[in-house]
Amino acid sequence: MLQIIQKVKSLRELKQIHLQIIVHSLGENSFILAKLMDLSSAFHSLNYAMRIFQNARSRNVVVHNTMIKCFVEKGCQNEAFSACNKMRALGIPPNNFTFSFLLKACESLGSLKWSKGVHCQILRFGFGCYIFVQNALLGTYARCTKDIDLARQLFDDMSERDVVSWNSIIGAYMERRDMARAMAIFELMPERNVVSWNSVITGLSRIGDMASARSVFDQMPTRNTISWNTLISGYVMSGDVSAAKSIFDQMEDKDVVSWTTMISAYTKIGDLECARKVFDEMPVKNVVSWNAMIAGYNENCRFNEALSMFQLMLLERRFPPDEATITSVISACAHLGSLEHGNWIHSYIKKNNIHLTIALGNALIDMFAKCGDIKYSESVFKQMPRKCIITWTTMISGLAYNGQCRDALALFERMSMEGMEVDDVIFIAVLSACTHGGFVEEGQIIYKQMVEKHGIRPRMEHYGCMVDLLGRAGKLEKALKFIQNMPMEPNAVLWATLLSSCVSHGAQELVEFVSQKIVDLEPLSSCYQVLVSNSGAVEGKWDSVVNVRAMMRKEGIKKVPGCSSIQVGGEVHEFLVKDTRHKRRKEIYDALDGLTELMRQLGYTPFRGQLGLLYANADL
Question: Name one GO biological process term (predicted).
Answer without folding.
Answer: RNA modification
